[in-house]
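Subject: 8-oxo-dGTP diphosphatase structure
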Amino acid sequence: MRYTTLCYLENPAGEYLMLHRVKKENDCNRDKWIGIGGKFLDGESPEECALREINEETGLTVTGYRYRGIVTFVSDRWETEYMHLFTATEWTGRVREDCDEGVLEWIHKDRLAALPQWAGDRIFLDLLRQGAPFFSLKLRYQGETLVYACLNGKELIL
């Protein structure tokens, strides 16, 4: 099992800082647009992991965030992943020019649907947009196809 974090940094213009994953070979997120995050280091809490990953990838130091939910990814290709999902609206610093993971870009929330993303990401981004309370979302993929989704114990119709 793999433990990760993902954070959507939102600016006052209604844009998320997105990462276009184009730099790493054999990246399961290759060519997709995702939030900012990564894998836990030994002994880290979800919050510590999220804050460290954000700083490493963007150069920003988050000062205001909200823990939004847990997403369980099950796949026939990759190990099961438990992702802790956050949003952030306050930080200090400037976005770095170069990121080892891909290209960073501010994208308005209304434009996200047109970008290459995982189908499950669209579900939790919609939950964030709706202001949903803390949630648990389970997503099952066959290859890159989402075949099952369950929100707070109730199966969603895909």
